[in-house]
Specification:
The chain is α/β, with parallel strands linked by helices. Helices cover about 35% and strands about 25% of the residues.
Length: about 280
């Protein structure tokens, strides 16, 4: 064979042999499977259903409540939380401005602190005047406080020199004088100086029909030998009643039955028993 033929035969043998794969190019079947599984998981996540609308609507009230609470809290702690409107109701004899002043509610106080200390402010008002029987404080959003007053009723007046002072159903005497030109058209003058006797008298009169009380014009202490607490009650009808202070609650009601039977101004003596005679 010639040299050329020998070379061609060698090239032919080399071409028939398989070419080895390069290092790093060998494909692992397990690796391919893992990649496919990751792609499938990603597709599943993408295909997950969105949050149901019904569930979203159920969260709306909760979120709204939380937002409202946040707004209210912010309102109470900002300067707006100090702006207050105070209304006083139920008072007749005590001035509204005095009640607000005595309550010790300050304009610089926060609304929240005023709410927390409402009981203390109520006590301040109760202790501020003999007229005040009870006081309560209520709050209306956003900034209104209402102080509701219950006053003691007025039983009559005691006269000191030329001044008149109200006697209250508690037995206390008002510290503020009532000018004579401001006295009501009809009233009872209590001519007693002992405060303890006045308290006992008021407690006794509290059990009497208001119609009888309205007729009492004047009450004087007129003790006798037998009765130290004997009172003389002058009525608007002109009748006079003699009755022990300690017996008023069960004896004075008989006046309603006796008075219609009297044709002239008379003395109704209730000191011992009950009888009447015309005034001489």
């Amino acid at each position: 064979m010639t040299e050329k033929e020998i070379q061609e035969a060698a090239d032919s043998e080399m071409s028939d042999q398989p070419v080895p794969e390069e290092e790093g190019q060998t494909q692992d079947p397990n690796l391919n499977q893992e990649e496919e599984e990751r792609e499938e998981d990603t597709d599943k996540v993408k295909k997950k259903n969105p949050i149901p609308s019904e569930l979203l609507w159920k969260t709306v009230p909760i979120l709204s409540l939380a937002l409202s609470l946040v707004i209210i809290c912010l309102y109470f702690i900002t300067p707006l939380g100090k702006s207050k409107q105070i209304v006083v109701t139920g008072n007749v004899h005590v001035d509204s401005s005095k009640i607000v002043e005595d309550s010790l509610i300050m304009q610089e106080d926060y609304i929240l602190s005023t709410l927390i200390n409402a009981t203390g402010h109520e006590n301040n008002v109760r202790n501020s005047s003999p007229w005040v029987k009870d006081a309560s404080i209520s709050y209306s959003f956003p900034n209104t406080f209402t102080i509701t007053i219950q006053e003691y009723s007025q039983i009559g007046f005691v006269k000191k020199r030329e001044s008149y002072y109200s006697v209250l159903s508690s037995g206390e005497i008002s510290e503020t004088a009532t000018p004579q030109d401001q006295l009501p058209a009809s009233y009872t003058t209590i001519q007693l100086t002992d405060r303890e006797l006045i308290k006992k008298l008021v407690l006794q009169l509290a059990t009497i029909n208001p119609a009888i009380l309205a007729e009492i014009q004047d009450i004087q202490l007129t003790p006798s030998r037998a009765t130290n607490d004997l009172l003389t009650l002058t009525m608007t009808s002109g009748h006079k009643i003699l009755v022990p202070l300690s017996d008023i609650d069960f004896k004075l009601p008989y006046y309603e039955k006796i008075a219609p039977q009297l044709s002239v101004p008379s003395v109704i003596d209730m000191e011992v028993g009950i009888f009447s005679y015309a005034i001489q």
